[in-house]
Specification:
It comes from Atrichornis clamosus. Belongs to the GHMP kinase family. Mevalonate kinase subfamily. The protein has twelve helices and 13 strands. By secondary structure, it is an alpha+beta fold. The chain has two domains: 6-227 and 377-397, Ribosomal Protein S5, domain 2; 232-374, GHMP kinase, C-terminal domain (Alpha-Beta Plaits), CATH 3.30.70.890. The strands form two sheets. Strands 1, 2, 3, 4, 5, 6, 7, 8 and 13 form a nine-stranded mixed beta sheet that branches. A four-stranded antiparallel beta sheet has the order 10-11-9-12. It is globular.
Length: 398
């Protein structure tokens, strides 16, 4: 039986460079965002498993004997690899949880992912645990910032730990700890299964960023962590303009088919920016000085123009770039475009007054804005008392 109060956190992600070009085999750079999802793990009443996800309105509790009975329909016996979340398995979970077929609301998918991961992990590594799990996030959902992957990574780490598949690396007196590389690989593989429940056919980038943190290079299905990435300050701005990634991707493909001689060089240039940015980041010290930033700012400017050429810009993103440029800051969209989010680089010599003025002007446009960092650490185990006051308050209120 689990006997400790602990917390797990995992970061969100942004695409630094390579949006849309990555779909066509070019390099993309994904970086960990220091807005995190937190999972509090507590011993529960014997024979009960509870989960509370206040961000999506989920509060559920089940008898562990009922979950054990269901588990045989979810996980095969004697399999070495993680069981894949197939249609029959998910249908059985929907029936058990009272979720309608085809339901795609965040609360339905979050519940399905929780049940699947709990039953599949416990089937392979131990019994269904009697624990209380509470999840709270600093990440907005549906904004392309990897919120579902951060959730899946936290779940994977917590469930693998309580089932004994990975260690509990937090020693007495420590505030935080991380797992060994082999254990991180196991966390990542199970988080990917949770992402499959939620998204069907994810790339694996988001859960990898949530697991390892820092920055990752992604090309044609291959994910490679970058060596020694500095932590960079940014403004993250959500324009709150909804968009369809599927429609935007299709539009880019149509434009490439229509004007290949024009568009393919643009994709090659985006690829070159991603690779050049990787080289710059890996050459920067852990605590970079202002002179390292001008080239990164130029990359932002050039790539933003390229993304407009691809047809994934939006007036809201143009406004974001204009507002930050008026404060001598450089921005680009991140993710699918067509609205959504943008990122603004904050060199270390940027005055607090300039940052605050930029935030006020962006909020005056109706946008939501956070000052945060990229290159943040991946999944981390915390002593609950070491969490920041606002996180403790949010968890307590939940």
């Amino acid at each position: 039986m689990w006997t400790r109060d602990l917390a797990v956190s995992a970061p969100g992600k942004v695409i630094l460079h390579g949006e849309h070009a990555v779909v066509l085999g070019k390099v993309a750079l994904a970086v960990a965002l220091d807005l995190r999802t937190f999972l509090r793990l507590r011993p529960g009443a014997e024979g009960r498993l509870s989960v509370c996800l206040p961000g999506v309105g989920v509060r559920r509790s089940w008898d562990t004997p009922r979950l054990r009975a269901l588990r045989g329909r979810i996980a095969g016996k004697g399999r070495e690899e993680e069981p894949l979340p197939g249609r029959k398995q998910l249908d059985a979970l929907r029936e058990f949880a009272g979720i309608a077929a085809g339901a795609s609301a965040p609360e339905s998918l979050a519940t399905l992912a929780f049940l699947y991961m709990c039953l599949a992990i416990s089937a392979k590594f131990g019994d269904v645990p009697s624990v209380d799990i509470l999840v709270w996030s600093e990440l907005p959902t549906g904004a392309g910032l990897g919120s579902s992957a951060a959730y899946a990574v936290c779940l994977a780490a917590a469930l693998l730990m309580v089932c004994g598949a990975i260690s509990c690396p937090l020693q007495e007196g420590e505030s935080t700890a991380r797992w060994a590389e082999e254990e991180l690989a196991l966390i990542n593989s199970w988080a990917f299964q949770g992402e499959r429940v939620i998204h069907g056919n994810p790339s694996g980038v988001d859960n990898a960023v949530g697991t390892w943190g820092g920055a990752l290079r992604y090309q044609a299905g291959k994910i490679t962590p970058l060596k020694r990435v500095p932590t960079l300050r940014i403004l993250l701005t959500n324009t709150k303009v909804p968009r369809s990634t599927k429609v935007l991707v299709a539009g880019v493909k149509e434009k490439i088919l229509k004007f290949p001689a024009i568009m393919n060089p643009v994709l090659d240039s985006i690829d070159a920016i991603s690779q050049a940015c990787q080289s710059v980041l890996e050459a920067m010290p852990a605590d970079p000085s202002p002179e390292h930033y001008p080239v990164l700012e130029e990359f932002f400017d050039i790539n933003q123009h390229h993304l407009n050429v691809l047809g994934v810009g939006h007036p809201s993103l143009d406004r974001l770039c204009q507002v930050t440029a008026s404060h001598s800051l450089h921005s680009k969209l991140t993710g699918a475009g067509g609205g959504g989010c943008g990122i603004t680089l904050l060199p270390p010599d940027t005055s607090p007054l300039a940052v605050e003025a930029a935030k006020q002007d962006l909020c005056a446009c109706g946008f939501e804005c956070w000052e945060t960092k990229i290159g943040a650490p991946g999944v981390t185990l915390h002593c609950c008392s070491s969490l920041s006051a606002h996180v403790l308050h949010a968890l307590a209120q939940s």
